[in-house]
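Troubleshooting log. The previous run stalled partway through. Resubmitting the same two chains, unchanged.
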Amino acid sequence: MYRIPILQMGRNLLVTIQVDMQDQMALALQDDLANKISVTEAKGVLIDISALEIVDSFVGRMLASISGISRVLDATTVVVGMQPAVAITLVELGLSLTGVRTALNVERGMELLAQGQKENPLGR
Amino acid sequence: MSQETDVVLRLLEQHEEQIIAEWQAEAGASSSRLSDANRRGMRDEAEGLVRVVREALKSGGDPEQFEAPQWNPVRQALESLSRSRAAQGQSAGDTSVFVLAFKRPVFRAIQKDGRDSQLQMGAVWALSVLVDKMAQWTVQTYQQTREEIIKRQQQDLLELSTPVIKLFEGVLAVPMIGTLDSQRTQVVMETLLQRIVETGSTLAIIDITGVPTVDTLVAQHLLKTVAAIRLMGAECIISGIRPQIAQTIVHLGIDLQGIASKANLADALQMAMQQQGYIVTRARQA
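Second attempt completed without errors. Output:
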């Protein structure tokens, strides 16, 4: 099975999803990421899904639970580069991913991580 | 060519002038409000139709097979007739009455011709079939034209009513006008999200000054749009909430917690600028 690579950049972890997610792959990623956060003591996780064109409710829930897991392990998760069609699909599925931070692109996502644990000014 | 259509053709050729005049009188009598220009146009149309019908009969067109290639010119003439009538806003009834009025003058001509009653009946039947098919075709194209017009207008309305404006570096605005139904919300959501990606904007202002009523369904559509914008990684401000609408929202118990809302677009823009770290100062007194 293909495993999604997790790259370390300083105190942040970088995950780029470039293939269509299958359920096994999503579960493996969740596992790997949890281990990696605790090993590297990362403070931030950046998930780039700009190449992801198809999502289902499982992948949507996976994103939410990764965010939850990393919060418990004291890391901030930012999901970046979501396609409009994917956003609409997730909303229609009733998954608005409250509590997951999002950014338009990797650059903005990195800025958001650099800001650290500061609260979002718009009161999310 | 059969004997019956032969008779019709011969009569059309012999009495062309009279048939057209009678046709015009007949059609004019059945539709009351007609201007002189309309009458002249009607005469041209009648002449044109008689000509193409004659040609079609000459080339051996069978009225029972109106879809045959011999009838192509007739069908085209009828199409252009019903199209122009639809564009003028005349009803489908008026249009088909005009075509059906062709029957009586030719019937009369057949009656006067009276030689062989057997052949006469056949000619009457052939003509009847032909005119009915012509009328049917006219109404059909008329309806198609009207539907096309309606579809085009709907599309125009949908696109017109949902412009996405770039207000400032990194700030987009959508002034929503008219009732928000699921189809419109879908269009707004798609265009807005697409523009967010294109311009890399981090803030979108949805202005609902032009939305007449807000009920739970509309609010749900709004919340969906906001959620999608957030998923993309941008933020959203809702502006232009009128006092009555604010009351309705509270009475309906719609939860707008966590969504920034402003009374008008100016306030929203000010907040957007603040958010982006801009300070607006006045350089001199106007």
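Takeaways: Strands of chain A lie at 6-9, 12-16, 44-48, 76-80, 101-103. Residues 6-114 of chain A form a domain with the Transcription Regulator spoIIAA fold (CATH 3.30.750.24).
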